[in-house]
Records
---
Amino acid sequence: MNVQLFIPCFVDQLFPETAFNMVKVLEKLGCNVMYNPEQTCCGQPAYNAGYQDECRTVGTKFIKDFKTFDYIVAPSGSCTGFVRNYYTKLFDNSAVHNEVKLLRKNLYEFTEFLTDVLHVTDLGATLNGVGTYHDACGALRECGIKEGPRKLLEKVKGLELKEMNDCEVCCGFGGTFSVKFEPISVGMGEQKVNNAVNSGADYLISTDLSCLMHLDGYIRKHGTPIKVMHIADVLASGW
């Protein structure tokens, strides 16, 4: 099975090890993994800031870079959800309408691809400790991802999975929201971290590094005894 990688901007620039771990998992499952080095941003930051024309320009390049019949897999529910749900509006009644339909059909968030396409839940991973899962808004609300990540985590040897209070509540990042409304964003992050710690977890796990980056900033500043991990890093542990 051929798989094209879509690596979002912040993963590429700040957390490349997660992308490598995603490749490690996919190759273990027999996938032929490919990466187009010409790829850039999907356009979500520009769109959220109100720059739809600029977003359309970036999106046009994205469509060209991922014009393929292969599966496209990304370690981000946020970016996956944006392409699926907003490209149809951006490119409605345009010359690339059919390309957008194909792109939306082939694009999957990483855990979604594992559970819904490959029908795999046990990767043979090992991570000792207690973990709790944060439902990132992009994964949950934009892609409808809920049970899949939990099924994957339940199969990790040595990991006890516990639910925290308000696991579906936003962490407060929200892209530019965290810049424009910093006090609210920090308060939401604090609540999320406290809920994770109160669950007894050693690891705060999610599908989206944007959420985890935000939460880790609070954790580091306050010396909170918990570690954030992207689910790809968890699934690549111990083998």
Note: The radius of gyration is 18 Å.
---
Amino acid sequence: MKFTGMILAGVLSLFSTVAVSETFTFTAIPDEDESQLRTRFDKVAVYLSEQLGVEVKYVPVKSYSAAVTAFRNNQVQLAWFGGLSGVQARRLVPGSEAIAQGFEDQFFKSYIIAHHSTKLAATDSFPILNDYTFTFGSKDSTSGRLMPQYFIESNVGQSVDKIFKRIGFSGDHSRTISQVEAGVYQVGAVNYKVWDTAVEKGEVDTSKVSVIWQSPTYPDYQWTVHSGVDTVYGAGFKDKLTKTLIGMKDKDLLDSFPRESFVPANNSDYEPIERVAKAIGMLD
């Protein structure tokens, strides 16, 4: 009986070893320059690996939709999503959960920026934007498309295709800034964090482009985890992952997001995003 017990213990130990040897993978929406994302998330992978005791790998993707697809197909088990992409992913993967968000993501906002040639000045009231060329970020961006479109249409009372002379989609916030600064588009919508950080680093010529309006706040980015991670990586893994993300205190890591800290999140926090997406026809 003792020998049988030893065999059983050995088998259980083997299965435990196999479980934790599984590489834990994560991705992020490509909302900035790819090299900046790689630098940030490779550091995050090292941090998570050290804290969780498993190999962790960051998997870059080329588009917001590719991030959602990778999550749906379980090619990644965790993702740093925007508000809309997180809603999309969780709708496709029942049981997946938003577990952490940046402190600032509880009250995120968008900026509308304009090229100096427009003569548009900063205003608390909504600016007159008729007949300008306008660029959003990615088509699936919360801060670069969804919420700006909602605020524009709500304030003007018309659809954006009737307001603007020409509409573009830059692909990410960094390119939105570059395109408006260069005059490729006269006006654009951008994530306030990306703008503020770029200005702070001296990467924006504010004599050529400036903020003319800032939106009301809304919930945005979050870490969303796949259903079933406890089965693959061991009981309690999701809770340990959540505590690890919320416990991220390294200033260099936090500054790279940039976020003051991470705080708990849950799916219901993003119901306002889902309602807006349905209202403007971006979700069924």
Note: Residues 1-19 have pLDDT under 50 and may be disordered.
